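Q: Sequence in, structure out?
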Amino acid sequence: MVMLKVALGLMSAVAAFSSVPAMAHGQEIPNDLERCGPNAKGPAVLVDVRGFAAPTGKVRVQSYPATKAAWLTKGEWLTRIETDVRPRDGAMRFCVPVPHQGRYAIAVRHDRDGNGKTDISRDGGGFSNNPRLSIFNLGKPGVEKAAFEAGAGVTKITITLQYM
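A: Exactly. Output:
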């Protein structure tokens, strides 16, 4: 009888744990700034994106686990927010939830004409920690340069866009 109660208790715990939604790879989400507001519990990253060269096109913000295998690899991003560019004073703000505290990296792309294609001579980009972009790294810094620690609450970062 005791073993049955223990087994039922373990099954209940597993069921409760598995009912907590996990953040899947490739999840497109809206930019819900309330998730980073004063009553937010996190974990989340409040990203200020600055330096838009034009108030046109689309902006895409993607979060990644800070691993070499996942960083900037197609389909390995955790969340994506894509929206029209509507900067105020050359800046926009995004709330990016993360599954738990830990190491992450964020990539931002400004598609100036909104055509969905990268035009290295017109479009801009940036990464967490603002590593310098150059033709030598093809605009893709290593994960060690972009990785940061997200805490249990709301972590604030600023990304400054760069244009070639």
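The radius of gyration is 19 Å.
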